[in-house]
Amino acid sequence: MDRALPKRFWTQQRIALSAGGILIVGLIAYVTLFADKRSKLNVERDKLTVSPVTIGPFEEFIAVTGVVQPLKTIRLDAIEGGYVTQKLVEGGTQVEKGQVLLKLENQGLKLSFLQSETEANRLVNDLQNTRQRLRVERFALRKNLADLDAQLDQAKDTYDRQAKLYKDKVVSEEDYLKAKRAYERLAKQREIEAESQKYQEDNSKLQIQQLEGTLARTQRNVALWQQTLENLVVKAPVSGQLSSIDVEVGSNINRGQNIGQIDDLNGFKMRVGVDEHYISRVFPGLTGSFEFNGQEHSIQISRVYPEVRNGRFEVDMTFTKGAPQGIKRGQSSPIRLELGKASKATLLPVGGFFSDTGGNWVYVLDNSGKRATKRNITLGRKNPEFYEVLEGLQPGEQVITSSYENFGDNEVLEF
């Protein structure tokens, strides 16, 4: 006889539905609690630059450009102004010291020279005439003194004779006193005459000295005017190459105007422009290097020009072992300018990422190499090849160093 079986609760259908529900709830819980919610972006790795983080010496240097210049350049300035009558040498010509380059004309200077020369000639004549006049006067004074001496001698004889006769009671007292007064008057006159002649002699010497001083000054002025006229002939002050001469026949030149320059070709230097950011770190003695004809040459800063123009200042660098053979004025070359000694550091190659992140974060690849994650970092010094890593990266890690411009704000890149 058939028996009714009890109806089972866990049928296959219910078991399947329950299992499905549990699976869905578990998936939702996993997604909610454990799944990676970070924003992602799929990119092509072939279009990225991936660089390793390394340990090595950090060499602090900057890349600059130097231009070859003569070791010494002499400015050619016009000592006197005038208009150009002759131009004997063109720019680029090799010249010798003392060689005539230009001839100028200045009528005003010529007139001043003639006036000064005329004045000097007049003073020479005045001096000669004064000396002649004083000589004649000296003779006349000597003659007067000689006449007085003769009269004085005669009066003394008369006085002595009258004194003797008066003593012997031969002549009267009146005759004796008359002879005495005549003698004393002549003696006093002779004394005054001697003093007068001495004064006139001293005055004559003073006149001569004054005239000689005035003549000497005038003659010096004549010499200066003569030298000024000679300066109208412009000559090369040194031997070298006349690199430029910016005048033409008929043009007018002012006193002190620069008309060109002469390059001393016995040596060369490099004139280098440096960004103003480094002005406090650049000083004479810093060294650098550059490549020329397949060889590396060392140079050293010899002078710093502190004036900043358009965000840059200039330095002169000289060759420590002599200028390279074959180097020419005006040639330019990239220079590696050392700013300090090398030190051991964690290094990250320079790349376009810095302009997008400011060096505050980078994308770092995981061990699988199939994704890169954003990570905060701290960078220190920089040279044209590497950044110094202070925090956030370890040697051996791989970092995307190309531009992040197209990655937006995504935290994970998947390849």
UniProtKB/TrEMBL annotation:
Domain (Multidrug resistance protein MdtA-like C-terminal permuted SH3): residue spans on this chain: 346-403
Record carries keyword Transmembrane helix: yes
Transmembrane segments: 15-35
SUPFAM superfamilies xref list: HlyD-like secretion proteins
Cellular location(s): Cell envelope
InterPro entries: HH_CzcB-like, MdtA-like_C, RND_pump_MFP, UPF0194_transport
Entry coiled-coil feature ranges: 117-165, 189-228
GO CC terms, sorted: cell envelope; membrane
Pfam families (alphabetical): HH_CzcB, RND-MFP_C
Residue stretches making up the CzcB-like alpha-helical hairpin domain: 142-185
Molecular function in Gene Ontology: transmembrane transporter activity
Keyword Transmembrane helix: yes
Keywords: Coiled coil, Membrane, Transmembrane, Transmembrane helix
Alphabetized PANTHER family for the sequence: BLL5650 PROTEIN, EFFLUX SYSTEM COMPONENT YKNX-RELATED
Family: Belongs to the membrane fusion protein (MFP) (TC 8.A.1) family.
NCBIfam families: RND_mfp
The name this protein goes by in its record: Efflux transporter, RND family, MFP subunit
Taxonomic placement: Bacteria, Pseudomonadati, Bacteroidota, Cytophagia, Cytophagales
